[in-house]
Amino acid sequence: MSESSATGVSPVSTPSPSPQNPADPTGHNPRRWWLLAIVALAQLTVVLDGTIVNIALPHAQSDLGMSDGDRTWVVTLYALVFGALLLLGGRIADYWGRKRSFIVGMAGFAVASTLGGMAQSTWELLAARGLQGLFAALLAPASLALLTVNFPGGKDRIKAFSVYGAIAGGGAAVGLVLGGVLTEYASWRWCLLVNVPIAIVAIVAAIPIIRESKAHGNTRYDVPGAVLVALGLGSLVFGFAQAENGWSSWQVLVFIPLGVILLALFVLVESRSNHPLLPLRILADKVRGGAFITGTLTGAALLGGLLFLTFHLQIVLGFSPLESGLASLPMTATIMVGATVLSKFLPRIGVRVPMTVGPLVVAAGLLYLSRITVDGSYAAEVLPGLILMGAGLAMIFVPLQNVALAGIDAHDAGAASAAVTAVQQIGGSIGSAVFTVLYTSAVAASLAGGYGTPVAQLQAFVDGYQAAFFWAAVGVFLAAPVAFFMVRPRPQDLLGSEPAMHLG
C-alpha cells in the first residue's frame, strides 16, 4: 500500500496541459493571479448575497407587506435553489466549459438581481431570489473549478485557496456591512442592484484573462440524478421550514421523509450510472467526506447565527441598518487576519489541528452570544462572541476547500467544486429553517408567561435569539470530532505535485 493511500487521501492530481486547460502543471500560468482576483470577486458576490438582504429585510418586509414567514423565505429560498442545483451546475461547467459557464452565470445573476431590486410584490422578490440561486448554482462551481485547474499544486495553491476560504467565511459578514450602508443611504433595493456593476466588471475582466477549460471523454448529462437530487434537497429543506407550524404537521411528516427517500434513490442511481452527476468516488474518501460534513455543520451555524444576530442588533439594541452592518466588521477582520496568518503555517502544521479547533472556537463564540440580554451592550455581550467566531471560521474555511478538492481529477473539477459549495449552502438552508423553528418555539413559550408589554415582547425575542445561538453552537461543535477523526491528510498532501523548485 502506498503512503498516500494509507493516509486516506491522494496527492493533488495535476491536470494535463491542453488547449482547453490553461493550467500548466509546472505552475507557470502568468495570468492565474488575475484569474484569482476575478474568481474572488465572483465568490464574494455569491456569498454576500446570502446575507446582504438580512439587513434590508425589515425595510423590505414593511415596503412589500411581507409576513414573517415570507421574510424567512427571502433568505432560505436563495440558499435552497442554489444548493439544490449546484451539482447540475458543476457538471454543466465541466462539460459546457468553465469560462462560458462563469460568464453566463454572472450575467444571469445580474439580471435576476435587477428583477429583485425592482420587485413590487412579495412573490416578485421571492421569484427573483430563486432565479439568483439558479444562476449562482452555475457560477459558483465554475469559479472554484477554474481555481482548481489553474492552481494544481504547490504553495501557490494554498495561498489561492486561503484567499478563497477567507472570502467564503468573511463574505457573509461583508454582506451585512454592505447591506447596512446601502439600506441606510440608498434603499433596500440596492442590496440587490449592487450586483449589476460588480457583474459587469467581472465579465469584462474575464473575457480576455480566463481561457476556456472543459472536461473530455464521457460528457453525457445525468438527467435522472439531477432531478432526484434537486427534488430531494428541496423536499428536505421545505419540510424543515414547515416545522415552524409544529413537528407533527403533515408537511413535516411528508416532505422530510420524502426528501430522505429521494436522496437515497439519487445515491443508488449514481452508483449505477456510467456518467453520474456526482461520482461517488468524490465522496468515498474519508478525508474529503469529513471536510464535507464539517462544511455542512459550519454553514448551518454561520448563516443561521448571523440571521438572528441581525435581528437582535436592530430590534433589541436599536441599531440602524448601517450600525448593524458595521457591528459585524470585527468578525470579518478577524477572519481576514486569521486567514493570512494560517496560510503561512498550513504547509507545516497540516489541516487536522485547525479544522478540529476551529469548530470549538466558533461554538464558544455562539455560546457567548447566547448570553445576550435585553439591556446588555454590544461591547460586552456581542463583540467578544464575534471575534471568537471570526477566529474559528478562519481555521475552518482556509483549509476546507483545499482538503475537499485534494486528489480530484480535472474531469471532475466542476462536480467536486459544486459538492463543496452545495454542502455549505444546504447546511445554511436547513440551519436557517431549523433555527427559525427553535426561535419561534422559544418566543412562544416566553410570551405565554408574559403580559404582552413591550418589555415582555423584547424579552421573548431575546429568549428566541438565545435558543438559536445555543443550538447553532451545538451543531458546529459536532464538527470538531468529525474533523479530528476523519480529516487526517499529511501536510505535504496540500502541496500537490508541483515541483519543489516552485514551492519556495
TrEMBL record:
Main location per the UniProt record: membrane
Any one GO CC term of the record: plasma membrane
Any GO molecular function: transmembrane transporter activity
Keyword Transferase: no
Biased composition (Low complexity): 1-13
Localization per Swiss-Prot or TrEMBL: Cell membrane
Alphabetical keyword list: Cell membrane, Membrane, Transmembrane, Transmembrane helix, Transport
Record region (Disordered): 1-26
Ranges that cross the membrane: 33-57, 72-90, 102-119, 131-149, 161-181, 187-209, 221-241, 247-269, 290-313, 325-342, 349-370, 382-405, 426-448, 468-487
InterPro entries linked to this entry: EmrB-like, MFS, MFS_dom, MFS_trans_sf, Sugar_transporter_CS
Membrane topology: Multi-pass membrane protein
Designated name of the protein: Multidrug MFS transporter
Biological source species: Cryobacterium arcticum
The organism's taxonomic lineage, starting at the top: Bacteria, Bacillati, Actinomycetota, Actinomycetes, Micrococcales
